[in-house]
Design brief:
Radius of gyration: 13 Å
Helix content: 25-40%
Order of helices and strands: HEEHHEEEE
Structural class: alpha+beta
Largest sheet: 6 strands, antiparallel
Number of domains: 1
Strand content: 35-45%
Mean pLDDT: 80
Distance between the termini: 24 Å
Shape: globular
Length: about 100
């Protein structure tokens, strides 16, 4: 693993918190217990399905994944790292597993 990738992963681990801002609206991200409950209650698709949707459009390796509450329901916020070192973000509707946005 390259130093750049190690530094990026360390930064991503430290930068996170329980709240995030998406499109100017603060969202509350779920902890592990609440994530499991949402998936078990079929309110969210499994993370693997969301990752497939994001990789299909953006490619790369998912280096960070969060399940958060937004105004319209639950969304997965994914950070991907491509082989060339480019970082992209994708938002997946957690209820359907469909890609909402990717850049």
């Amino acid at each position: 693993m390259s130093w750049a990738r190690v530094l990026l992963l360390a930064w991503l681990a430290m930068a996170g918190g329980a709240e995030t801002v998406f499109a100017g609206t603060p969202m509350r991200c779920l902890n592990a217990e609440h994530r499991r409950a949402a998936i078990a209650a079929h309110k969210a698709v499994p993370l693997a399905r969301a990752m497939r949707a994001a990789r299909g459009r953006n490619g790369g390796e998912v280096v960070r994944a969060r399940l958060c509450e937004s105004g319209s329901g639950l969304v997965y916020l994914l950070t991907l790292l491509s082989r060339d070192g480019k970082v992209t973000r994708a938002t997946v509707d957690a209820g359907t597993g469909r890609l909402i946005s990717g850049r």
